[in-house]
Design a protein that fits this description.
mainly alpha
Amino acid sequence: MQTLGLSDSTPKTSSRLRDLFWPDLSVDTSAESACDTASYACFAIAGVTTVFAFFTSLWSIVDAVLFLLIGFGLRKKWRMAAIAGFVLYVLETVAGMVAGHPPGILTILILAILFNSVRASFAYRRLRKIAVTSAVS
């Protein structure tokens, strides 16, 4: 290893599952990653909703467009997009539960991802503000 100039790697202290459900947002790259993951989830929700909208009602297209716009907002780390995505998905989950459809594992996973996007978007703005102030000083 010394010949190649490689150093011993330190093992990761947390699991991938823990990072998915509660990521460490103390660095702006991890906050960016959490927002990007949520944007991918919103794009997937929009795609699946669009496919099923042709079989159910066309009002689902509005839902798909909302999640598409939220996904683009999350790519820009907008706090309002993160909040809107989480609240919209919670409302849809509650409506499904009232209609007699219990939430599945995927629903819980998406809720966790969207909740972490809210945390991440606020952490990202805070960390960027700290970086700008320290760069000016």
